[in-house]
Amino acid sequence: MEIRLKVFRYQPEKDQRPRYDVFTLEVDPTDRVLDLLEYVHGDVDGSLAFRRSCAHGVCGSDAMRINGRNMLACKVLVRDIHSSEITVEPLLGMKVIKDLIVDMDPFFDHYKSVLPYLINDAPLPEDGKERLQSPDARERFDDTTKCILCAACTTSCPSFWANDRYLGPAAIVNAHRFVFDSRDTGAARRLEVLNEQFGVWRCRTAFNCTEACPRDIKITQAIAEVKRAIITGKLV
Amino acid sequence: MDKGVAAGVVAVELATGEIHVFHAKSVVLATGGHGRMWEITSNAYAYTGDGVAITLRKGIPAEDMEFFQFHPTGIYRLGILITEAVRGEGGILFNGKGERFMERYAPTIKDLASRDVISRAVYLEIKEGRGINGSNYIHLDIRPETVNKYAELDGRTHPDGTPYRVTAEEVLAKIPDIADFCRTYLGVDPVKDPMPIQPTAHYGMGGIPTNKLGQVVIDNQETVLPGLYAAGECACVSVHGANRLGTNSLVDLVVFGKHAGIQAAEYASGAYMPSLPADAEEYTRKQISDLMNGSGKEKAAQIGRELRKVMADDVGVFRTEEALGHAVEKVKELRERFTQVRVNDTGKVFNTELLNTWELGNLLDLALVTSVSALERKESRGAHAREDFPRRNDTEWLKHTLAYMDEFGRVRLEYKPVKITQFSPQDRVY
């Protein structure tokens, strides 16, 4: 089938302002949007820049706006777009560096601010091996372990668009992953960060994040659970 | 490198195109595998063997490159990995005639045989026209009715002795990511329809030769190159030998990565800072300039396609003298044509065309040493299966390949003995 692929272009060393290039391509309905971009990059215009690595929704590199919605280019097939015109644009709310590549540094700064690693200074168990956890306790935060840090959620959030100092859904999801981990003792420090001006209270439950997540994480619910933990002081 | 000692790393910053020199006493290479040289691969785009190619050009050999693992269950056409957990949960492989063909190849362990055995079985089924609809894939079936039927036939039980039976919900709970892949890329619900699969290039057992401390060793005497370490898939400490069991890549990462790090730190705390070569950046600048100023008569994308095809056709699950000889000649031709490639993006910021073209050059060099090493190894061992030499031959071939490449792209092979500790090689019988 024939597709009109319309791609946001911005080459910082040449362009005063962004433009759109249109590529008319003969494609297979089962091609990924990423395959189309790869074809353009390899055979038509090598200067087209985008991030990608695993190409099957695990590494989180190729989140972008596809026909207006945040998706991973490797996880959406042409046939699932139901349109012969595909518009590909960089994530909103981040500085565009080149074409589809945005500056991810602020996103990762927000991520780091919630201490996204296991905190537990207590001595190891007597056998010196693992800190055991029951399946139920593990299940408590299973959903938020699925995050691949693609930024599709944060850059779909109207509160983040309004003020990019808001830590955003992805950072809160990753805080949730440790706050509710029975082996972790750093919850109080994380909740303190998330209770500040640009923490969880900027969330107005628009649900855009939950819709955008390519891993189907129940993000809005996770944020609500963090809000509740801050109010009640209970980690259940 | 300076006078045979590691002196640091020259790096190109992707975001700016600037060249940086990291002057260092010790360097740890952890650059990953090279599975992108095959057409069907589970590997990410970044798996282009950069570290192995860099050291190869510095005169350091690549060890055991002919040993590359093909995982039997990749998603048809895409190569995305379907974990063997699917077979662990009771999934069964079927050919186009609806036969559970693994019964013929591994009568006792059947669908749970090791990866190389199943990959070869799948290849042979397809070759003999027993793919699904005569095509080049077979089915992996995890539908509960199939799992339960064969669990009953096999007399499979839970540890407590009760019969092993599953429901669709249980299957989906065990393999959520696989179910997601199937739905996304195949439009197949794995508890309702079987998954089309084919073998996929997965893991390099070979790489930069190291000893168990992660030190890079540059010859068959295991001479250490001071200050240089490697770990992970790019390294060949040879913990896997000619084959790898599932999950054991973590040994490369966790165990030998840790040792390489400890050794590198200890070495750096004692050693003098080596001097840098007079113009450390010169080699890198020339590499970039060659790629930017080629004639443009050849297209990198086309060379990449031809490389992946010849490696899949001739240096895949099964190999022969004729196919490997053809691959060596073809890769040489592609390397020659690669000198005519030109990067058109003249920008410095995120010049991914330059990056990807450079990566292709790395794959071409590694494809050459892989093909030459495989051509020379006239036996079948682990993941290296020769149709013309179907038996393992310990008398002549119980040895590691060391492939060196000179500046003209000529490959020279040496061999080093295998250290046998507790376990001698034996025939695998299922």
Give the SSE order of chain A as H and E letters. Answer: EEHEEEEEHHHHHHH
Q: Main β-sheet of chain A: number of strands, strand sense, barrel status?
A: 5 strands, mixed
Content-based structural category of chain B: alpha+beta
Q: How many strand elements of chain A?
A: 7
At CATH level 2, the architecture of the largest domain in chain A is Orthogonal Bundle
Beta-strand level of the residues of chain A, as a percent range?
5-15%
Average pLDDT value of chain A? 96
Largest sheet of chain B: 4 strands, antiparallel
Number of domains of chain A: 2
Classified in CATH, the superfamily of the largest domain in chain A is: Alpha-helical ferredoxin
Report the CATH topology name of the largest domain in chain A: Fumarate Reductase Iron-sulfur Protein, Chain B, domain 2
Tally of helical runs of chain B: 13
Q: How many DSSP H or I helices of chain A?
A: 8
Q: Which features would summarize this protein structure in a list?
A:
heterodimer; A: 236 residues; alpha+beta; Ubiquitin-like (UB roll); Fumarate Reductase Iron-sulfur Protein, Chain B, domain 2; five-stranded mixed β-sheet; 30% helix; 14% strand; elongated; B: 430 residues; Methane Monooxygenase Hydroxylase, Chain G, domain 1; Flavocytochrome C3, Chain A, domain 1; four-stranded antiparallel β-sheet; three-stranded mixed β-sheet
